[in-house]
Structures are given as structure tokens and as C-alpha cells.
Amino acid sequence: MKKSSEAIQISSSILKTELDYILEQMIVSVEDNLCIGVEDGYDDNSFWISFESNEEEYWPSAGIIEIDVNSDPFTKIASLVHEVGHYFLEKDPSLGSGSHKMFEESVAWYLGYRYFESNGFVIDPEEYKKEMNKCLEEYTRSINEKDNN
Ligand SMILES: [Zn+2]
Asked: Measured in angstroms, how far is the CA atom of residue 1 from the centroid of ligand 1?
């Protein structure tokens, strides 16, 4: 076991079982610290579902993150990090809503990375960028397709 003061370095070259274990720890951290529920997703995608804050609720929850069950463990970790970034952007009172989709998607990748980094989960930046760039290219393509229809 690593000491809690020691950051966990995450890359896709780590054993799958170890990555699964790290993902579990990251999920516990999100559930405990941010009141976000993390669930298995079966729609070939990962996403963030925001809840309206309801103070009267006995178990207040900020929202739910669904993680695509069919992804490999490293992609699941990157997806969790990105969706947590959406949560942080949404909480921003001035720039949290009304921005271009590409701004939201890019900033979510950034904020999520910084959040986990400050909590001791450091993802290999080159690999993270690769995953991030792949997803940003997909968003760009889907936006362009909509524009052409
Ligand atoms: Zn996103």
C-alpha cells in the first residue's frame, strides 16, 4: 500500500487489475468528497447527469456519472476525470453555462485533471492528452456533421 501522502502515478501500462483498483479508489473519492454517484453505463458512452440541488433531500447528491462498462480501465479513468470536470465547470457561477460546446468539453478535461492531481491521482499527461485529443476530435466531427445537415 502506498502512503496517502504519496501520489499515485497512473498510466495504461499498469496492470489491468491495478488500474481497476485505482479506479475504485477514485470513485470512492468522488462519492465521498463531491457527493457524486458513479454508476455503470450501458449506452456506449460516459456522461454526467446533473441534479438540481435540493436541500430538503435527506441524501443530497450533486449528480451521477455513468462510466461506459465496455471501456478498458485506463479509458474509464480518463472518462471519470473528464465527467468530474463537467461538474466543476457547471458549478462556476460566471462561465458555467452558455458557452460553446468545445469550450465546455475542453475545460472539463482540464478541470478534472487538476482536481484528481490535487487529490493524489496523477495521470500520465501524454496519455491523458492522447485520450483528450481523440475525444475532442470526435466532438468536432459531430458538431460539423450537425452543421452540414
Ligand atoms: Zn464531456
From this structure: 32
